[in-house]
């Protein structure tokens, strides 16, 4: 086991042994984008982190709204939490982040993986962004690399870099809770696509395998759920044991080559997510809209024949 993974495993074990407090995790599911967002907090200090928030976006009208974010704000206020961190597991391609809105209302520092600069470079070209679009991650307050540690009150967080779905994906291990982003989905649904620019099925396999070495009892919280054959309710929490032994795409025993072949074939059949162009354009800016034009209106671009 590598050293950072070992640290994450021993943090989880310390929670299981009662040496570190168990964080409370509250999920908020957005059905239009099938996204699970989370408010995680330390029950003793009331310090909190918000993970992968959603800004409501009606594409036909180009209108944004805040129902999902306001539900999180209402919860934070009712519980008397102090938001210290706004964490993104990656630059999402299927929903816009509400992090800037939440930051304005609740405070907290905006955090993403350091490889976001790769995503900014790739999509900066696709959207033909000029020099005013910085590709250095400066839209975020903090960029994390593998093994970086934060505190949520008195509960530690370890960040692990888990590329594959995108180059910048991070998993956040908070106490005994593993927030995988899109690196894995529910055991009966499997895995995320790896065919976006910068994605890599081989890397995704290795990232999943790495996370699966964490303790069996780790609580696992996913960024999405789409239901699954024979299941008609949404579920976004499982355990590492269930993933390791039962994940339909990548359970123990599935070889890297077999996974890559399955993933590549399957990805070739998928159309692009409905909101990929608006989402990436906004999320690569830390969830901010492109600068308004001289009439005060922000516009999103639709590059033709680029994806
Ligand atoms: Fe994603």
TrEMBL record:
Natural source organism: Allosphingosinicella humi
Keyword Aminoacyl-tRNA synthetase: no
Keywords of this entry: Hydrolase, Metal-binding
One Gene Ontology biological process: hydrogen sulfide metabolic process
Protein name: MBL fold metallo-hydrolase
Gene Ontology molecular function, alphabetical: hydrolase activity; metal ion binding; sulfur dioxygenase activity
Matches recorded under InterPro entries: Metallo-B-lactamas, Mito_Persulfide_Diox, POD-like_MBL-fold, RibonucZ/Hydroxyglut_hydro
Signal sequence extent: none
Pfam families: Lactamase_B
UniProt cross-references to SMART domains, sorted A to Z: Lactamase_B
Keyword Heme appears in the UniProt entry: no
The Metallo-beta-lactamase domain, residue ranges: 34-224
């Amino acid at each position: 086991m590598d050293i950072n993974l070992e640290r994450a495993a021993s943090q989880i074990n310390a929670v299981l042994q009662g040496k570190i407090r168990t964080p409370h995790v509250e999920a908020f599911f957005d059905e239009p984008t099938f996204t699970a967002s989370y408010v995680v907090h330390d029950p003793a200090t009331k310090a909190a982190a918000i993970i992968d928030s959603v800004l409501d976006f009606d594409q036909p009208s180009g209108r944004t709204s805040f129902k999902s974010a306001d539900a999180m704000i209402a919860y934070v206020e009712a519980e008397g939490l102090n938001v210290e961190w706004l964490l993104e597991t990656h630059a999402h391609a299927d929903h816009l982040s509400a992090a800037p809105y939440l930051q304005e209302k609740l405070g907290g520092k905006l955090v993403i993986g350091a490889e976001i600069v790769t995503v900014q470079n790739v999509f900066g070209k696709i959207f033909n962004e000029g020099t005013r679009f910085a590709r250095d991650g400066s839209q975020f307050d903090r960029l994390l690399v593998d093994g970086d540690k934060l505190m949520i009150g008195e509960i530690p967080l370890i960040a692990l870099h888990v590329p594959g779905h995108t180059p910048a994906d991070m998993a956040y291990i908070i106490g005994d809770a593993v927030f995988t982003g899109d690196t894995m989905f529910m055991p009966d649904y499997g895995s995320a696509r790896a065919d976006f620019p910068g994605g890599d099925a081989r890397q995704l396999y290795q990232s999943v395998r790495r996370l699966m070495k964490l303790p069996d009892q780790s609580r696992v919280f996913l960024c999405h759920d789409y239901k699954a054959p024979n299941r008609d309710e949404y579920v976004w929490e499982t355990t590492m044991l269930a993933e390791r032994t039962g994940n339909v795409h990548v359970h123990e025993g599935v070889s890297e080559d077999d996974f890559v072949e399955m993933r590549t074939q399957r990805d070739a059949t998928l159309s692009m997510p409905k909101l990929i162009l608006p989402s990436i354009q906004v999320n690569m800016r830390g969830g901010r809209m492109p600068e308004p034009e001289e009439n005060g209106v922000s516009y999103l671009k639709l590059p033709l024949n680029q994806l």
